């Protein structure tokens, strides 16, 4: 959860927890039977494209 949201911030782990818990529920509704596969692919994409976490990536995008 801290890795997804961003471990270097106060709200990063909270955001990561909300995204992981809420995201898994949404995926279970829209992709029944394939939700774990989609969940795994999304986590891999975050690790590849936002290695410092989503909150850090959003902060960098705001500055640009």
Record keyword descriptors for this entry:
64 residues; mainly alpha; 4 helices; 75% helix; elongated
Q: In angstroms, what separates the terminal alpha carbons? A: 26 Å
Total DSSP helices: 4
Uncertain runs: none
Overall pLDDT metric:
85
Taken from the alpha-carbon principal axes, the silhouette is elongated
Task: Please count the beta strands (DSSP E, at least 2 residues each).
Answer: 0
Structural class: mainly alpha
**Secondary-structure element order, as H and E?**
HHHH
Radius of gyration: 12 Å
Strand content: under 5%
Task: Describe what is shown at a glance.
It contains four helices and no strands.
Structural write-up:
75% of the residues lie in helices and 0% in strands. The chain is an all-alpha fold and 64 residues long. The chain is elongated, with a radius of gyration of 12 Å.
How is the topology of this model organized?
Layout: H1 2-5, H2 12-30, H3 35-49, H4 54-63
